[in-house]
Design a protein that fits this description.
By secondary structure, the protein is mainly alpha-helical. The protein contains ten helices and four strands. It is globular. It starts with a strand and ends in an 8-residue tail after the last helix.
Length: 217
Amino acid sequence: MYLITGGLIFILGVVCYLVGRVLLLGIRYKNHRPIDWLKEIIRFLFVIYICKVVSVTLFPLPVGFNSGIENITRSINLMPFKSIIENISHIGVAYDGDVQFMIGLILRNVGGNLLLLLPLGFLVPLLWLTFRHFKKMVLLGLTVSICIELLQLIETWAGGWSRITDIDDIILNVLGVMLGYLFYQIVFKMMRRNLAGNRHFQKWRSKNEKTGDYYGR
């Protein structure tokens, strides 16, 4: 039995991106094509974030376990808020009545799922004009969350690794995306208001709006 760790996948993902991106930027520089360094930084942060999400949600990945089809029915919850309500009902009962530990466990679970895709709602609109609309951003978040849960279900079946495919995770993930998008809107409305009278900002904005690269639209 082997165990592929999330840390390894994270490092490989980031290194592969850096190598490929540096080569591409080198070609752009050689051809005297302009490079938007701010967008390159945002893109790099996005890659780091995606690699981290993958490493946390899908790894460690065991190799060599027998498939566990019997684990699937025990690892699916399709009833909204069932897991959260059950966890709350266990306060003062589970873990030898350790209330503080149980509350912390619930907060980590709920907070972790909220925060998991929150950066997605903030970073994606910065990089792609298409997702600067609330409905499209929510749909993207829903799609990503469902894909994560389905992949975890496949892992449970194929490798016998016990992961829970939970509708509550999807709900909380989507709420996180919505919060991230709201934060994106607030931040850039404040930037536009504060820099409205700045001549250099207006010149930069006019130039980049023509190409769809203006981040605060």
